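Q: What residues go here?
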């Protein structure tokens, strides 16, 4: 039914449940998976003095190293789970300030025919202010999306 499942994760406990569900589904269907994590870019206006820019560059570099290390840890854990289940898995680390766009793009580029992801279930004003990456994926994806809460 589904030959290639994309599983986006941010490493949160809820997202880990979606990883576990997506891997179990892939095993049951004989599918392969791509596990994706999106690192948000350190985005700040750069109108500072020379000394401030040097400190900002150092801060940006530390942020990027830390974010990349965390993404590597998240993807490594998912790859280990996939290997333990015998599910063929690729891992991808993307960089974007709009994770939903990276998820939709990865689904298209990798030929995924299903996206399995978690939703934190924010509603009302909270959802409007914070935004919902899952909702944006649902409204922009050309492939089916299975949402877990």
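A:
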């Amino acid at each position: 039914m589904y030959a290639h499942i994309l599983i986006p994760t941010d490493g949160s406990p809820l997202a880990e449940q979606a990883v576990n569900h997506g891997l179990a589904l892939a095993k049951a269907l004989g599918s392969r998976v791509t596990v994706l994590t999106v690192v948000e870019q350190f985005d700040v206006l750069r109108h500072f003095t020379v000394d401030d820019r040097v400190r900002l560059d150092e801060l940006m570099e530390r942020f990027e190293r830390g974010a990349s290390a965390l993404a590597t840890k998240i993807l490594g854990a998912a790859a280990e789970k996939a290997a333990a289940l015998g599910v063929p898995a690729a891992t991808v680390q993307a960089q974007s300030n709009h994770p939903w766009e990276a998820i939709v793009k990865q689904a298209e580029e990798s030929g995924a025919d299903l996206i399995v992801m978690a939703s934190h279930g924010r509603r009302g004003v909270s959802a409007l202010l914070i935004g919902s990456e899952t909702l944006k994926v649902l409204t922009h994806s050309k492939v089916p999306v299975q949402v877990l809460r």
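A: Context that may help when evaluating the design: DSSP finds five helices and five strands in the chain. The chain has a mean pLDDT of 88.
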